[in-house]
Protein 1
Amino acid sequence: GGRMVTAALPDGRGEWLRLRDSKADRLLRAGVTLRLNTRADAALIAELAPDDVVLATGARPRPLTVPGAGTAPLMDLDAAVLDMAAGGAGIGPRVLIVDHLNRAPGMAAALMFARAGRSVELATMAFHAGEKLEIQNLSYFQRECLLAGVTFRPTVTPHRFDGGTVEFYNIFTRTVTGHGRYDTIVAVLPGLAEDSLLPVIRGMDLPVRVIGDAYAPRDIEAAILDGFETAMSL
């Protein structure tokens, strides 16, 4: 298991701490034994000798595969948000957010950085930022981001990096449509399933179910449903 920490979340995302705290309280009231700050490995699993194993180890960041990415000042979303929550020493004055999710995470990060005094642009291949959000959250984030000075670059994707210089490619015209120079580039991408323990568990001949992002990265609502259905079937 990981650590239960009280983290500073971007504006508009604090409700997730309430959800986490509610779930943690239910666990404690149900008498579930928690092993925090403990990394599961073959030795620990063998020691516990479980009848069933549920692998819910989440996702790891997906690299941004764009020519020149190795030269760019890239950060994944989690690292960038944690850095900003700790004071933002690693977040430069000019920030580009490359949003391939088009939901709340990229928009919330843009708002967080802009309110902390950074000059922020958000690039997306969608028709508009936050295209997959429901209307209430879309309205909130669009309004607050614009008021905070965020600039949106719709229907484009980074085509090439040269250090902090980015060449943008329009997915409709199929042409290079602009350049920008940034101190920090934050990649908001679908994660990659973190299921490296799966062959270890299968090698121990234990029944195992893979759920949540460890099976396939998904929205939190779908991950919670996956966990609920798995628990009810045990």
Protein 2
Amino acid sequence: MAGHGPLVLGAMLAIVAVSWGFIAMTDFVSAGKVDHFDRRVIGYLRHHPQPPVIEDMAEDITALGGPGCWLLVTGMIGGYLVLARRPFIAGWLFCTVASGAVVTIFLKGTIDRVPPGHPAGMPEVGYYPSYPSGHSMMAAMVYLTLGTIIAQLVPGKLAKLYVLMMAVTVTFLVGVSRIYLRIHWPTDVLAGWAAGLVWALLCWVITERVRQIRQKRKAVMRGFQVLQSPQTHQADESTPRPN
């Protein structure tokens, strides 16, 4: 586990850097400094419609970030981990997703921002705040965490890299689909990715630390048993045996 030291350090540095980016993005959105960029992207999509099949695909992909999909995937993978006698990893998955869902709900009220799909001229009431993108955030948390877990279980560096790349690809496509369908502004998605990545990394670092403590405790217990074994053997030899 000592070999994971550089990975843990890199994750902690990433947490700090991406958290700073999320805070900066939130400040920019609050001050309206990114409105021009957001409106240009959404305006381009509105004036350059794509074939209906592309929009159908985007709707299918965006569903991967919805609660129905990530709850189903989490339950299926978590159930397998329990059956495979890996309860610690299953607990890591369930805790990450459950706590991440709570954090997502909390962050959705950070900025009361009107989504791009809200009809023009309509009162700015009766909508769900679009910042940050909840689908993008949950996709980052769930699929990056699942990718990390599965990468630990499959053999070979190439297979591990493939699994991680697929997790990143799904996360990316979910966010892009939210923009393409004009459900979220681009900065909503960027903020969702950032928040989801931070939470996934934070849960991984905590889990890694807990696993290290558990391994050290097991090593101490094994050492104690080794020390006790010679004493037990000597005691057995010193016991007089009946003739």
